[in-house]
Amino acid sequence: MSGAPGSGTLPDTQVRAMFDRIARVYDRMNSVMTAGMHHRWRERAADLARVGPGSTALDVATGTGDLAIELARRGAEVTGSDFAPAMLEIARRKAPGLRFEEGDALGLAYPDASFDAVTVGFGARNFADLDRGVAEMARVTRPGGRVVVLEITTPEKPPLSWFFRAWFGHVVPQLGRVAGDPDAYTYLPSSVRRFPGPADLGTRMAAAGLVDVRWILTAGGIIAIHSGTKA
Q1: For residue 30, what are the contacts with CB-CB under 8 A and spacing of at least 6?
Q2: Is residue 67 in some structural domain?
Q3: Residue 149: which H helix or E strand, with range?
């Protein structure tokens, strides 16, 4: 992205083109890279959103729609937003009953206090301006509503830190070569390394007007799920 804290290393237009390019292999690669566990992590994120029948939810940077689908399974009326049209095409095929719209996470096209919950799964590290993206998520959340951020985080203690560096620094780019897009899966480890740690992200969420900000570390500390309530 633009080099802002928590961003990757490519301009927005290149990141959008990259996700359009890898859309056809995105779900398969997620399952390979996480041994299928990414579905369970999205389930936990959806639980923390605390939605149910009669609730409205927005999933930002929805990609191929997996987190939006989890929110809908809990009975919420869900909108998924993403800036990559090819990803949205797949999301619409997977969940034709949900609303998927092209949009910019840094300038959400919804009025203040529009949703009971706003989530992002594995997309916050692609925000060109993380603070602005989190502030936009908080802006469109109703008072008392929930904001949830699911992301990969860098473990600091060995031996997991050693495994993480080997996996994301060497194995994932090789998998990208097999999938036909080594650049995209070299960008992934770079974006993870630049993303703030759990405490820093929690501070940023509080600065955006969220209270009771908490986070869960799972998968040995590789996955962080943050949640906060709109004041």
Answers
A1: 38
A2: yes
A3: strand 141-152
- List the one residue out of 21, 34, 27, 11 whose CA is nearest residue 62: 27
Q: Is residue 7 part of a domain?
A: no
Summarised one tens digit per residue, pLDDT across range 134-175 is: 999 999 999 999 999 999 998 877 887 777 777 777 777 787
Residue 157 lies in a domain: yes
Q: Which two tokens stand for residue 190?
A: 């770079």
Condensed to tens digits (0 to 9), the pLDDT of residues 70-117 reads 999 999 999 999 999 999 999 999 999 999 999 999 999 999 999 999
Q: What pLDDT is attached to residue 3?
A: 29
The total number of structural domains in the chain stands at 1
Q: Looking at residue 2, what is its pLDDT?
A: 28
- 39 domain residue, yes or no: yes
Host domain of residue 153: 12-230
CA separation for the pair 169, 163 (Å, rounded): 10
Is-cis flag, bond preceding 53, omega within 30? no
Neighbours of 36 (CB within 10 A): 10
Find the CATH number of the domain harbouring 189.
3.40.50.150
